[in-house]
Design goal:
Bound molecules: adenosine-5'-diphosphate
Distance between the termini: 75 Å
CATH architecture of one domain: 3-Layer(aba) Sandwich
Largest sheet: 8 strands, mixed
Number of helices: 16
Structural class: alpha/beta
Shape: globular
Mean pLDDT: 94
Number of strands: 25
Radius of gyration: 23 Å
Strand order of the largest sheet: 2-1-11-10-12-13-14-15
Amino acid sequence: MFGLMQQHELLISGLIEFAQSNHADTEIISRRVEGDIHRSNWAQVAKRAKQIANALKHMDLAVGSRVATIAWNGYRHLELYFGVSGTARILHTINPRLHPDQLAWIVNHAEDEVLCFDMSFLPIVQAIHAKTPTVRHWIALCDADRLPSDSGIPGLQSYEAWMGSQSSEFEWPIFDEHTASSLCYTSGTTGHPKGTLYSHRSTLLHAFGSALPDVMNMSATDSVLPVVPMFHVNAWGLPYSSAMVGAKLVFPGPALDGKSVYELIEQEQVTFAAGVPTVWQMLLSHMKPLNARFSSLKRTVIGGSACPPAMIHTFKEEYGVEVLHAWGMTELSPLGTLCSLKNKHMALPEGERMKIRLKQGRSFFGVDLKILNDQGQRQVHDGKSYGDLYAKGSWVIKKYFKEIDTALIDGWFPTGDVATIDEDGYMQVVDRTKDVIKSGGEWISSIDIENIAVSHPHVAMAACIAIADPKWDERPIVVVVKKPGLALSKEELLAFYVGKTAKWQIPDDVIFVESIPIGATGKILKTKLREDLFKHKQS
Ligand code: ADP
């Protein structure tokens, strides 16, 4: 017997309709490429999303075709999120930090037909436009009078001219909630990038799940700053979850330096921010010498790579900001776990609670996790036994875009991470499978070695990598960037490790460098680092 309740498709257009009806005047603030601050609101976004829908209708663009963006976080990008997906076309957000050859490869693989870009990315577009024959329409996200006459891009239009003259009357179509809504490629540090094709249903369920109190705890009282780019897994779903709860959104545009982010947080009274650790490192380095304080920021979700314990401490102890450590990946929309405490932890001393907060967190309803050993057997959840981490759930990938084979093993997605899970369900990433150091049959977590290094007051950044060793197979070495003007010797740093980790896990060597290569999503590029060091050794 079926239940007798209504059936409504879970569609992205429903989010913007809701935000328009219930949170019309809630602000959407953007620092623009033009340099100024632009003020909009959910009603404006909804109206302009409909103008985009009409503009697309007049373009002879089939349902399911791909509309790409190469853009910073801002209101125009947000309008495209709703305008494109709302009409059953697919928004393909592209990471501009990739190499132009890789960008062209992605555009061709996705068969993008429209490409919208911020003017600061014009040089990239000039480099790729002749190599991307599927793109029929090039749209610069700017006013008509800012369009250069000599761009070299045939038929280049300004966004405002393209959509600005369209009617804002549009009835969002109703279609199957399993329809594809957006496309995001993994950064492809090994091999070609692979596309994750989200659906309306997966996007909405992820938004419901991520907004829960024990997850991102989002509400209409929040002023949300996604520092995480809208080209990096849909800014962790924040555009959708903010529309769902009616939160204010604050977009940083291209200005991600510590000073600009700090000023924006203060000016727009941001309560909740999200980003990768490298961004917060820049923010904290800016604030420290000025003795600056936050007047509104309450919590920040940090993920994408392991958040160093020292950062969680600094945010909490010095600034009174709660860090929510989160783990996820493109293939998980991206949220898999988030670290929030349980009732039974409330009575624990702060030191004990901090130990829990350092983990990547527990999964929430909608995501299942398991860890398997080398023989494919389930490992016990005791917080010590580690294994390959697998995920399953309604916002977890099934198959990569245009691939024939499933991405799953026995119905579960292999994440490529090695992890432990404790009795309470808290997961801790030991390492990426490819980064873990295998020394004498035992594993050393590069994350642990890096965390100890960055807890030294003179260390700005650290990366631990393996070097081949005839006796032990692999041994760890740590590559370190010192804080400006501060001295540190190899011996001092190695001595700092004593007592903080097992003796055999202490790195064999310390290499001081001026900078460590950072990849397109703000993570340390260990492949490049290994290459650079290898070259350095040969020369
Ligand atoms: P890519 O794999 O292309 O870098 P993602 O941004 O999807 O793309 O990265 C996912 C990976 O990032 C995870 O598999 C994991 O290794 C790492 N990661 C994400 N969040 C964390 C975290 N909080 N701690 C440690 N590693 C993390």
